[in-house]
Amino acid sequence: MDRIKQVIDKTKRQTMLSILSIVFAFIANGKTITVGQNKQCKTIHQAIKIAATFDTIEIHEGLYKEGNIVVDKSLYIKGINKPVLDGEKKFEILSVKSNFTTIDGLIVQHSGYATLDDPGGIKVYDSHHVNIINNTLSDNFFGVYIQYGQHCIIKNNNIEAFGVEEQQIGNGIHCWKSDSLQIIGNKITGHRDGIYFEFVKGSIIWRNISYKNIRYGLHFMFSNDDAYIGNIFKNNGAGVSVMFTKNVKMFNNYFIDNWGDAAYGLLLKEISDSYIFNNRFLSNTSGIYMEGTSRIKVENNSFNNNGWGMKIQASCMENNIINNNFKNNTFDVSTNGSLVLNVFNKNYWDKYEGYDLNKDNIGDVAYHPLSLFSIIVENNASVMLLYQSFFAMLLDKSEKVIPSLTPTNFIDEQPLMHPILL
Amino acid sequence: MNRLIKFVVLDMIKNRTILGYTLLLAIFSWSVFGLEDNATKGVLTLLNIMLLIVPLVSIIFSTIYIYNSSEFIDLMVSQPVKRSKIWTSLFIGLSISQILAFVVGVGIPLLLFAPINIALSMISVGCIVSIIFIAIAFLACAITHDKSKGIGVSIMLWLYFALLFDGLVLFLLFQFADYPIEHIMIGITMLSPIDMARILILLQLNVSALLGHTGAIFTDFFGTIIGTFISTFVLCLWAIIPFYLSLRMFNKKDL
In A297-377, where do the E strands start and end? Predict the structure, then answer.
């Protein structure tokens, strides 16, 4: 009976919803203004001028070089067959200064370059509920720029630039002093930072692909209470960096091929109370680099084929590293001091050589993930010259047998015998 | 001289030790590439084995071979053949056979599994390392007439290059940690053929990013044409100088 009641309730709710939406459609009753050759308006400027709040502007196929276009009314701006808005390398192209505005299906290209006022392809000023969806942003200084935005959605955009030097190019999606943003399903490449967050709260970054950006794929500064989930960060100049932030959730992301002298899969600096869960760190110079982080839980991640799986500086404390897989890394873990305030437990280490007599999948001997050579390298980076030499191998082997120089409490008490299925 | 070389090479090929050495190298390399799913890792493991075993076998085997053929050398010296020709053909014959063993043992799997440019440089570096340690063996033999002493000297030399030298490098790096000694380190590395061979290969693999600042300086040097030329030249010197010294000693030696 309960079940039937539930179904009836659900149907009722759905009917109510559809009736409501029809009612709203009638109330809203916006008119549609078309822009294009042989259309109602020739220019977008003109269309915005004659439009009333909540009207729809349909921009048809064509090339529009109209300088800076300011959207100061709540409008639904829709591109039909991908019209091109060109900034001629001089102007900021779309400046959104109104709430409840949607920009859909445009190609926005060649914005101006200026370091003082940071022009963007699409820039949102001090507005809420702005949706930027299905656009292609090509060769802009900043792709999408949100400042003082709330409840904005940036979804399914294709953002590309061709930056060569860090100083010459802005970020793909740049968010500053904003709140409750949703950044979903975008593809970003060739910018300075793929996605940049500064003073952004309560926002989500979901299912984006950020690759081949000059500096970071994703860059967090002073942005608390955010989450990024299911993103792919690949082949960026320096990987991903999360700095001076607390309470960030990082789930199900891929950090791949961030390979180079100063590249990190994930760089954590001054972070606290965060949760890193079910991510994959594949082929990075350092999978995770931690500095001054505290109370972080690193759980169910895999670290494969990295130079260093994790680099944990001695300034980190109360971090829990649990149930991760470490496979095929040159060094699984390294640290620069003898003070150990972090906990390793129940990880799988492919270099573990212990045994498991009672067959409970937990090794009977604790594992020391630190190799002597990695510690020496941490003290004196030049010693890396002896990498792969017989001498370094001998040092490690002797240290494994009788640990004397590595911190004795840097251990995994319950190393797993088999990798966790992730 | 050609007939002498031919004789030495044929004698070598019939030698069981060389056959065993080839087999050992082959088993190592095939199993390394069979076990590692990642070619770079395989190359690294192989590099490790190569830089340990190849010098050891080259130096010990050559030393023993020369001492064992002392009667043959005496016989040849009594013939109207120049001493330098005897010594040189022994050297060339030994080198050819060792290189053959190396190429068959390690070269084939390398060419099959590793990227071609890395495979080729590994093979050439391996061949040069073989020749260098044969030359060092010749020097050890020329220094002393006593077989056990000669073998002892060879083992000590191998130990020095494979192990002690790296210890010295580590010591230097820590003593001068506060000084910019990276450029000097390039020069110091050239004092050990094993280290140089290792770094030359490492710089070609993508693990070179792990070498950090020092690695970047090394890449800057060895990456250039002049750097490649100098490093090849230095490796050749490592073969030529010991052999030349041994030749001079042998020429004057009272057999």
Answer: 297-299, 302-304, 308-312, 320-322, 325-327, 331-334, 343-345, 348-349
The CA-CA-CA angle for residues A165, A169, A175, to 5°, reads 135
Domains held by chain A: number: 2
Q: Assess A405–B contact: CB distance below 8 Å, yes or no.
A: no
The Cα angle at residue A256 between residues A259 and A192, in degrees rounded to 5: 70
SS3 of residue A350 by DSSP: coil
Query: DSSP alpha helices (H): ranges in chain B?
Result: 2-13, 16-35, 39-68, 70-78, 83-102, 108-113, 116-143, 147-159, 165-175, 182-189, 193-204, 212-222, 225-252
Cα–Cα distance measured from residue B43 to residue B49, given in angstroms and rounded to the nearest whole number: 10
In terms of domains, do A134 and A185 share one? yes
The residue extents of the domains of chain B are 2-252
Contact B66, B141 (CB under 8 A): yes
ipTM of the shown complex: 0.83
- b/e for B127-155, b at 16 or more Cβ within 10 A? bbbbbbbbbbbbbbbbeeeeeeebbebbe
Residue A266 in tokens: 């994930």
Taking residues A95-112, what's their average pLDDT?
Answer: 94
Contact: A391, B212; criterion CB under 8 Å: no
Nearest to B202 among A263, A376, A388 (CB): A388
Q: Which domain holds residue A379?
A: 371-406
Q: Phi then psi for A60, rounded to 5 degrees?
A: -90, 170
b/e per residue B86-107 (b: at least 16 CB within 10 A): bbbbbbbbbbbbbbbbbbebbb
Q: Which of A310-319, B152-161, B174-183 has the lowest mean pLDDT?
A: B174-183
- A276 Cβ partners below 8 Å, 6+ apart? A250, A266, A288, A296, A297, A298, A299, A301
Does any domain span residue A414? no
Distance CA B130, CA B18 (A): 13
**Which residue on chain A is closest to B45 by alpha carbon?**
A388
Convert the pLDDT of each residue in A129-141 to its tens digit.
Answer: 999 999 999 999 9
SS3 A71: strand
Region A109-128: mean pLDDT is 91
Which 3 state secondary structure label does DSSP give A349? strand
Q: Tell me: do A388 and A264 sit in the same domain.
A: no
B184 to chain A, any CB pair closer than 8 A? The answer is no
Question: Which residues of chain A does B215 touch, with a Cβ-Cβ cutoff of 8 Å?
Answer: 261, 384
Q: Model confidence over A328-364: pLDDT tens digits?
A: 888 899 888 877 889 999 999 998 888 999 999 999 9
Determine the angle formed by the axes of helices B116-143 and B83-102, rounding to 10 degrees: 140
Are A191 and A159 contacting, i.e. CB atoms less than 8 angstroms apart? Answer: yes
